[in-house]
Amino acid sequence: MIDLMRIVHVSTGKPYDIFIEKGVLNSVGETAKRLSSAKKVTVISDTNVAPLYLERVEKSLRDSGFEVFSHIFKAGESSKTLDTISKIYTDLANFGMTRKDIIVALGGGVCGDMAGFAAATYLRGIDFIQVPTSLLAQVDSSVGGKTGVDLPAGKNLVGAFHQPIAVLIDPDALATLPDEFIRDGMGEVIKYGCIKDSAFFESLEAENALNRIEDVIETCVSIKRDVVSRDEREAGERMLLNFGHTLGHSIEKLHGFSGITHGMAVAVGMVMIAKAGEKMAEEAEKEKKKVYVETTVISDATALPTNDLSVAGRQITTRTWWATAATRFSLYSSDVVKREAMRGDSDAARRRMEALATLSE
Fold first, then answer.
1. Which one, of 18, 24, 21, lies nearest residue 223 by Cα?
2. What are the start-end ranges of the E strands in the chain?
3. Angstrom distance (rounded) from CA 31 to CA 61
4. Residue 249 known to be catalytic
5. Is residue 162 annotated as part of the catalytic site, yes or no?
């Protein structure tokens, strides 16, 4: 059976396509040539990914006529800093990159965030292509245009919205991922089922997602595409995509951005906030009944349909569903990720984690 390329179009201020196909890493140069008049390309990658895929991507780019330079940084969230960005700027300038030239982000979420931020800010903005190689980056972070770096005060506190000109997703790249990074990406996959697609959520319980990974990737990026197209700069609906992230980022910060991956921290955050939401929903259910009674009285006076609940009532109902769906995620891996999250490096970190955990007790 021949696997056909899947294309998901993103209608943001600067529209672009997401290409999902096994082996598409070999077509980076061809895609860049079709979309850009650049003469030079800088590939940004890390010490984990570069030994696996950099040679293939560089060859594809050179075969398409580009001058190519590569900047490799030490893998890990600890490299996601302004200091690393400064070194990238220096290499871009020394290579003679102009506004017509492009950056290729080859790697996971950290790489995509930093390469995108360098592209957003170097010469006040140049084009870039996302080539995500981790599950988390393929289903989430490579799409939507969020770029940035961390500060000592917290995660992603410096950044910009800057859409790529293309996203090339090669599912074959997942074959080299350690199991922990598959679990890492599954945190984001499950998030999409929780916030937008109950049938997709149910399917993740029924079957191993890796057995139909192209479908899973396409579903996730399509959901994100729809949300981002309606709310590119997170003025409203896009905040749904942050489900589990507020607590997740806190957990990452408490661990010094090491020892627990982003996806695992988000998974913990989803479980904790869902359980807290369930508690709130118990009270909200009582309030919903009051709202229904009140709107029925209003309906009698204004000839509105009695089943036309107020916006508040609908929001309560929706919030209850999210809480229930997300809590079921605990059946998937909450015990594992909670144990991981509780391995604090200091008494202070453990105390603060315990304080967060009270939300879900």
1. 18
2. 6-10, 16-20, 40-46, 67-73, 102-107, 127-132, 146-151, 154-161, 166-169
3. 9
4. yes
5. no
Nearest-angstrom CA–CA distance, 39 and 118 = 18
Which residue type, as a one-letter code, is found at position 107?
A: G
Is 124 an active-site residue? yes
- Exactly one of 188, 218, 232, 340 is catalytic; name it: 188
Q: Does residue 287 have an active-site annotation?
A: no
Query: Of 183, 196, 262, 338, which one is the catalytic site residue?
Result: 262
- 14 within 8 A of 161, measured Cβ to Cβ: no
Structure tokens at 184: 């890492």
Identify the weakest region by mean pLDDT among 103-117, 205-219, 226-240, 244-258. Answer: 244-258
Catalytic status, residue 9? no
- What does the alpha-carbon distance between residue 281 and residue 336 come to, in Å, rounded to a whole number? 26
CA distances from 95 to 39, 68, 106, 165, 178 (A): 12, 9, 18, 21, 34
What is the pTM (predicted TM-score) of this model?
0.79
Q: Is 188 part of the annotated catalytic residue set?
A: yes
Given 94, 124, 208, 211, which residue is catalytic? 124
